[in-house]
Every structure is written in structure tokens, then in C-alpha cells.
TrEMBL record:
Coiled coil: none
Cofactors, names only: Zn(2+)
Record: residues binding Zn(2+): 47, 77, 80
UniProt cross-references to Gene3D superfamilies, sorted A to Z: Cytidine Deaminase, domain 2
Domain (CMP/dCMP-type deaminase) ranges: 1-107
The protein's name in its UniProt record: tRNA-specific adenosine deaminase
Group of enzyme by EC: hydrolase
Family listed: Belongs to the cytidine and deoxycytidylate deaminase family. ADAT2 subfamily.
Record note on quaternary structure: Homodimer.
UniProt keyword terms in alphabetical order: Hydrolase, Metal-binding, tRNA processing, Zinc
Length: 159
């Protein structure tokens, strides 16, 4: 999870919501990684989990990631939860619940749904406080930037 937090920082520093993800094989080797890239790539599917799943599948030359573990700093959204299920990942470990779009346990439970064709082991709360602090600090900073921009005109003078 510490590697996922490093990737989340890279995303946050680039102006993205700071979410990072890594995938490891049964031996603990890193086989895929990603951080949020929606803004940079102008791609609504460029979530950390999707990028990491694509990377791991390329590494293994197989879309079945059934012996692998995915670590992510924020509870996956519905799109990412679906991708995790379809990739047949064995285990999902995430840091922080997402009260707005969490699709693992918080808002909805896609892995436990009758629509899920795969059972996924889920572990929540790993390095939760570090991830929560990173997310909260990023959002506080983003809000302060918006407040500053709205207080000053386009020429930099106070309105």
C-alpha cells in the first residue's frame, strides 16, 4: 500500500485526485501500477485501478489476474469494481472508504451482488489514516485555489 500512496502523491502533484494502485503476484512482485490520469489523458476511464489492471495484464500476457492482489488508496468506484471482478483478481486491499461512489462496501457492494460472477476477497482500512490525510489535504488545497481564482479577476487584480 505504501507504493500505492507514492503513486497517489504523483497523481495529486499533477492535479489529479490522489489515488494510486499497485498489483502484485503471489510472490509479492509488482506486476502493474497506475495513478489517476483522467485530467492528463482527458480519459474518463483513466482511473488508477484501470491503468494498473491493464499494466498487470500486459506483464502477465493474460487478462486473468486470479492469483493477484490489487492495492488501492481509495475504495473503487462502480467502473473499477467491475473491472476488478472481470479481471478475476483474488484479493482487493483498499485504504479509505468512499462515501460518494464506493462500490465495494460503502455505497453499493458489486462483489457481493448476484450480478458478480466472481468472488473477491476484500480487505479495507490498510494505511487508512495516511491515505485519508493525503486525500483531505489535496481537496483542501484545490478548494483554496478555486477560492483564490474567484476572488481575483483574470488580470490578477482583486475583484
Amino acid at each position: 500500500m505504501s507504493e500505492a500512496l507514492k503513486l497517489a502523491k504523483i497523481a495529486g502533484d499533477a492535479g489529479e485526485v490522489p489515488v494510486g494502485c499497485v498489483i502484485v503476484n503471489p510472490q509479492g512482485d509488482l506486476i502493474g501500477q497506475g495513478e489517476n490520469r483522467k485530467q492528463r489523458d482527458q480519459d474518463p476511464t483513466a482511473h488508477a485501478e484501470i491503468i494498473a489492471i491493464r499494466s498487470a495484464a500486459r506483464t502477465l500476457q493474460n487478462w486473468h489476474l486470479d492469483q493477484c492482489t490489487l492495492y488501492v488508496t481509495l475504495e473503487p468506484c462502480p467502473m473499477c469494481a467491475g473491472a476488478i471482478i472481470h479481471a478475476r483478481l483474488q484479493t482487493l486491499v483498499y485504504a479509505v472508504d468512499d462515501p460518494k461512489t464506493g462500490a465495494i462496501r460503502t455505497v453499493i457492494n458489486i462483489p457481493g451482488s448476484p450480478a458478480s460472477n466472481h468472488r473477491l476477497q476484500v480487505i479495507g482500512g490498510m494505511l487508512e489514516s495516511a491515505s485519508r490525510e493525503q486525500l483531505q489535504s489535496w481537496f483542501i488545497y484545490q478548494r483554496s485555489q478555486k477560492t483564490q481564482k474567484s476572488a481575483y479577476g483574470s488580470n490578477g487584480n482583486k475583484s
